[in-house]
From TrEMBL:
The lineage of its organism: Eukaryota, Fungi, Dikarya, Ascomycota, Pezizomycotina. This is Uncharacterized protein. The keyword Membrane applies. It comes from Microdochium trichocladiopsis. Keywords: Membrane, Transmembrane, Transmembrane helix. The chain crosses the membrane at residues 32-60.
Amino acid sequence: MLCTAMLPALSRYLLGRMDASAKDFLIAKGSIVLLVAGCFGLFLAASAAGMIISLVLFTLGTGLP
């Protein structure tokens, strides 16, 4: 779902507002932040709910262009 719907929609939206290299850089920075937040959350997860939320963040961070 991330690679087939969310990233192309975000890319199309950002491309209308900035040039291609700035768009890719912004998506890459956002992906890295989500990936690190997901890893850190998995490390600190004390419950199943915390682990699920961290896995969602981690998955959203795997969309590096």
